[in-house]
């Protein structure tokens, strides 16, 4: 790999951040405002309706996981009333994701350019930035960047989450901003209509704000030159971010997933957990010719999510890895409703029994629990966990049957070697 920086990741050591075509193009010169301005001019204010039109024409979708059209969210906040709020969600509670952290450390001013454009369009005097407490380098880089910027445009407020997996969920962030526990709650209206203190709140992740800044700086036509007609632009990916040697890189939509894996030192068609801990397993044979594309991955039953790509080590068993992840997810829930408080711990126990004890009935119990927790939580945490477990049974039915008999094909293969 050529053209990269090594930065502190916070979770499991250092992180490699590759120089990219747009958002990460200037990271080799450092994160200062002076270095940033050599690549990106200070953005001129854009009227709200014009910003909606530009982001719509650019086809910008949020990079936080759901992929919601950003122009619709912005238009909703504009139409919902005055006294609007702006939140940059850089919390990244997902252990496998580090793209927002990498962006905040290496190119924080691009994120803040986008946030100030949005704040100006929404007439919001304050931008709240939510960061993870366990990644101290993010907070240090953010505060240094804020100190360099003109103080007359907006006022920044920086808050740290509680550090849990669900702390970055949108409603959990609103709860934090209002001084309550950083945990999700049920809401029947989107944040763009009913956010902080009931006011319209534009809440997106750090990469989305950086994408807004690039649309403004490049112009829509130039922005559309990357990616595909249906999915324009670039996106950030975190590859193997939940362990040592994680890589954050920027790629155009439409690039082959196998090319990304090879670039990061992995086999082009090995097993991949796509989309992170709430994602789906893609077994060997399913990665080749798949592209970094929401539509293309959906055809394979997967989702790009927040851009998390977790290759499975050939010496690791997908059943055992899934059991460990579900145990983690069960421990990192809000524990405020039945599916999280009771269902996820029971699901974790069933997978542990399948993984370690060879219980032939564990699969049936796990499938029953997946059906019980789906669609019943106050937030999407149970649904995401169920999606992961469901994909294990779909992607690796033979390995599941081997585990039901008390064995493991991966361990057996290692012994034979």
What would CATH call the architecture of the largest domain? 3-Layer(aba) Sandwich
The coarse silhouette is: globular
Percent in strands: 5-15%
Distance between the amino and carboxyl termini? 31 Å
Biggest sheet layout: 7 strands, mixed
CATH H-level homologous superfamily name of the largest domain: NADH-ubiquinone oxidoreductase 51kDa subunit
Give the count of helical stretches.
17
Sequence of secondary-structure elements:
EEHHHEHHEHEHEHHEEHEEHEHHHHHH
Q: Mean of residue pLDDT?
A: 92
Strands side by side in the biggest sheet: 1-2-8-7-11-9-10
Q: Please, how many domains?
A: 3
The CATH class of the largest domain is: Alpha Beta
Task: Give start-end ranges of low-pLDDT stretches.
Answer: none
Rounded radius of gyration (Å): 21 Å
Structural class: alpha/beta
Tag the structure with descriptive keywords.
13% strand, 417 residues, Rossmann fold, four-stranded parallel sheet, 3 domains, single chain, de novo design (two linked rop proteins)
Summarize the structure.
This protein has 417 residues and is an alpha/beta fold. 43% of the residues lie in helices and 13% in strands.
Question: What can you tell me about this protein's structure?
Answer:
This protein has a 7-stranded mixed beta sheet. It contains 17 helices and 11 strands. The model has no long low-confidence stretch (mean pLDDT 92). It is an alpha/beta fold and 417 residues long. Helix content is 43%, strand content 13%. The chain folds into 3 domains: 192 residues, NADH-ubiquinone oxidoreductase 51kDa subunit (Rossmann fold), CATH 3.40.50.11540; 58 residues, no CATH class; 99 residues, NADH-ubiquinone oxidoreductase 51kDa subunit, iron-sulphur binding domain (de novo design (two linked rop proteins)), CATH 1.20.1440.
